[in-house]
TrEMBL record:
It is an enzyme of class 2 (transferase). The chain crosses the membrane at residues 28-51, 174-197. This is histidine kinase. One of its GO terms (molecular function) is phosphorelay sensor kinase activity. Keywords: Kinase, Membrane, Phosphoprotein, Transferase, Transmembrane, Transmembrane helix, Two-component regulatory system. One of its GO terms (cellular component) is plasma membrane. Residues 259-463 form the Histidine kinase domain. SUPFAM superfamilies: ATPase domain of HSP90 chaperone/DNA topoisomerase II/histidine kinase, HAMP domain-like, Homodimeric domain of signal transducing histidine kinase. It comes from the Bacteria. Residues 198-251 form the HAMP domain. Its EC number is 2.7.13.3.
Length: 466
């Protein structure tokens, strides 16, 4: 984007305003202050209008009352000077020609206060009238026809009652007070928002600082976890759980890397030795030396392929489909000829969702191990266990000691009996089987049995399974 400041480009690729705050706290505070300013301004305008209307209404009420009371007290065509209140000092009686017939002391000698002449159908009218730098709140009240007939032979007369416009209506003082109140309320709201958001985000900042100190070489640190069960507390728990999984994965990776280097070193050393013998001793059987080296290379290739398989399986099954475990167990048992017989017991078909090839590989590996250690036969049982399908593979051999039942699933771990019966094994078969079970949200364990070893694979039943 030519001519665009890189600092103005947001993390999502969008262009951020140059002076936009980057802090969530600042953005939220500015947004809240802006919204509150708008709301308070609307409220302020309403308050200002209401106060203006109330003051003006009260003023017109007083002038109207003064005019009405004077009209009611008239007994002669030329009424005496009225007694006024301090609030409404101006009263005038004006005839049809506009001449002042009678007036209060404050209005004596003044021309008619107004030219407003209300009609008979709307005899009382109010007005704010300004002239010569003076503004009056004025009521013009036309004398009723009955009074006019009684006092002036039907000639129309009008009474004007007025008072100086109140100071709040004649200046911007009220608007200034309302504006100051709106600004103060908005600033107070912004400060409160800043403090509240800061307090809310303080645990998040503590988590960020702690995570920044975590390195790949030391994953033992954990973020501080606030009490309660709000979003921040759940975020801290999730972060710590993620760090636990990451630390466990890194530890397993270190152990696996150490074991891989150890397990590969031996065949590589053997391969190098065999090739050096062929070069150093020409008189030896070169063909036999190359054949031995080729066998070592094949074993090395087998180990590498199994390690790659274990790595691929840990990412989860690639393609899943409904798999009937009873039918799959019968198919794999039928392929295991040439060893102790395999008996399958499956009262019902149990369907799971998974990768058929991987699950078949697990059953095949378990059956091979069971036949290798069995004395007379192997029994496979497929049954329902709550919401899971369980496949148990049991032999009648020597069994596995309780202390070794977890070790056998570790990569490159081989018990003495296994090395004796299968010297060429890599020790990765059961590790691959457990990895497949776990990627299918299942388990693979060695359980107690009266005789021999009993491996039990548990997998969740498919949703369509009744």
């Amino acid at each position: 984007m030519k001519g665009t400041d890189p600092a103005a480009i947001g993390g999502d690729g969008g262009v951020r305003p140059r002076f936009a705050p980057t802090s969530i706290r600042a953005r939220f505070t500015l947004a809240m202050a802006g919204v509150s300013l708008l709301v308070y301004a609307v409220i302020g305008v309403g308050v200002d209008t209401a106060v203006h209307n109330r003051i003006e209404r009260d003023a017109f009420r007083d002038t109207q009352r003064a005019a009405t009371e004077w009209i009611g007290s008239m007994r002669s065509p030329t009424p005496p000077q009225p007694i006024t209140s301090e609030r409404v000092p101006y009263l005038q009686l004006v005839d049809a020609s506009g001449s002042v017939v009678s007036a209060s002391r404050a209005a004596s000698g003044l021309p008619a206060l107004s030219t407003l002449r209300p009609p008979y159908d709307d005899r009382i009218q109010n007005r704010v009238q300004c002239a010569n730098g003076r503004c009056l709140v004025l009521t013009a009240s036309r004398v009723s026809p009955q009074e006019a007939a009684r006092l002036w032979a039907g000639q129309s007369h009008i009474v004007y009652a007025a008072m100086p416009r109140p100071a709040l209506l004649g200046s911007q003082r009220l608007e200034a007070l309302v504006a100051a109140g709106v600004l103060a309320a908005s600033l107070l709201t912004g400060w409160a928002t800043w403090a509240l958001v800061g307090r809310t985000l303080r645990p998040v900042e503590a988590m960020r600082a702690q995570i920044a100190e975590i390195t790949i070489s030391d994953l033992s640190l954990r973020v501080p976890q606030p009490s309660g069960d709000d979003e921040v507390a759940r975020l801290a728990r999730t972060a710590n759980q993620t760090l636990d999984r990451l630390e466990d994965a890194m530890e397993r990776q270190r152990r696996f890397g150490s074991m891989v280097s150890h397990e590969l070193r031996r065949p590589l050393t053997g391969l190098r030795t065999q090739l050096e013998e062929v070069l150093l001793f020409p008189e030896a059987d070169a063909r036999r030396g190359v054949r031995d080296a080729l066998a070592t290379a094949e074993r090395l290739q087998s180990i590498i392929e199994e390690m790659l398989m274990l790595t691929r399986i840990s990412t989860g099954p690639r393609a899943v489909e409904p798999v009937g475990l009873a039918a799959l167990a019968r198919e794999e048992a039928a392929r295991r000829g040439g060893g102790p017989p395999v008996e399958v017991s499956a009262p019902e078909e149990l369907t799971v969702t998974g990768n058929r090839v991987q699950l078949a590989g697990v059953l095949a590996n378990l059956l091979v191990n069971a036949q290798r250690h069995a004395r007379t036969g192997v029994r496979v049982t497929v049954l329902r266990a709550g919401g899971d399908a369980a496949v148990a593979v049991q032999d009648d051999g020597a069994g596995i000691a309780p202390g070794d039942r977890e070790r056998v699933f570790e990569p490159f771990t081989r018990l003495a009996e296994g090395r004796r019966r299968d010297p060429a094994g890599s020790g990765l078969g059961l590790a691959i089987c457990r990895a497949v079970a776990e990627t299918h949200n299942g388990t693979l364990r060695v359980e107690d049995s009266d005789r021999g070893a009993r491996f039990v694979l548990r997998l969740p039943l498919a949703r369509s399974q009744p």
